[in-house]
Design goal:
Blueprint: E1 6-10, E2 18-22, E3 29-33, H1 36-59, H2 62-75, H3 82-98, H4 102-115, H5 120-135, H6 148-157, H7 162-182, H8 208-216, H9 221-233, H10 237-242, E4 248-249, E5 254-257, E6 268-271, H11 274-280, H12 295-305, H13 315-328, H14 331-338, H15 342-348, H16 355-361, E7 366-367, E8 372-373
Antiparallel strand pairs: 1-2, 2-3, 4-5, 5-6, 7-8
Length: 379
Amino acid sequence: MAKPAYTIKAYKHPRLKWVVRSKISGKWERRFFESKGDAQTYVGQKEIELLNQGREGVQFPTWLRTMAQRAQDRLQPHGKNIADATDFYVKHLETTQKSVTVAGAVKNLVDAKKAAGRGAQYCKELDWRLQKFVDSRQKDETLAQITAPQIEAFLSSLKLSPGTWNTYRRDLVTLWSYAIKAGFATVNEAQKCERALQVDAAPGILTPGQVSAVLSCSKDVDVLAAHAIGFFAGLRVSEINKLDWKDVDFTSGYIHVSAATSKTRSRRLVPLLPNSVKWLKPVAKKAGKITGPNFRRRSTAARRDAGIIPWPDNAMRHSFVSYRLADTGNAAQTALESGHDQAVLFRHYRELVRPNAAKKYFSIRPVGKKKVIELSQAA
């Protein structure tokens, strides 16, 4: 005959005279009562529970059953259960415990971008912007502790223009994306932040007369060559700074922009237009970098001498793309030559200038030994 689950015995105590002993959960448990009747009532209730729920049910405390049921009721409308919630929270705790500080995450990200071959300028600017975020946080704060409202508060504190807000937000999204892959975070908090409403302004371009003035004020050979390539081939300044004279092929009629030179890491061939050949051939070398030391300072001096202050952002490239699109009427060709996205061309450059202005622009060429420039007085 099986032993009873609960036994009642007398107990020596001034008030509690009876004890109920049981070993349901693998260890002895005792409950004390003033009268034998109270002890018998308790045993009767527990035996009914044991009969209805089995030994496992009796071992499950009432308060825990109640909590579990309430939790399940809250999760059910979302199609989740207690196991799902537990898995999610445990993962969050584990991630939080092994997360790195904000400063450490930024360093790891920038190092990873460098190792992946991203450009030095990109890595420098990424690090510069993210360091501002590092400076806004506590020294020992981890990335997993930061929430979207805190990120938005940081962005608001900088009082940024809509475009710059979106640039900072993009870099923070990149940081959190990297952190998720590395196991430092579970959710991209930066992605929850609102984008700023940005109205794209028309790109700043120069008139044919202004281009003529800049070229005439370019006293140094490399500055003249760089300006001619920028205005009449549309290369980015960063690409011109990496370009070698051996990539300028007058025989084939193309400038070869290698993947290593290109900002987009994809090679392209840019045609040498007739007026660009006129400017470049007299100063061309067989090999060697197009630009020399202190190029930025010397090119800025030429622009200042031409009276173009302030200088529009990416003025050479924007001017080339705008006038080239107007001259050819071919967005696909212009996109291919400039390494642009065709959708960007239609959004920013279409009908920005007229074909007759484009004809004047691509007619700018040096005249005579002193490089007196045609159309130097053009509007």
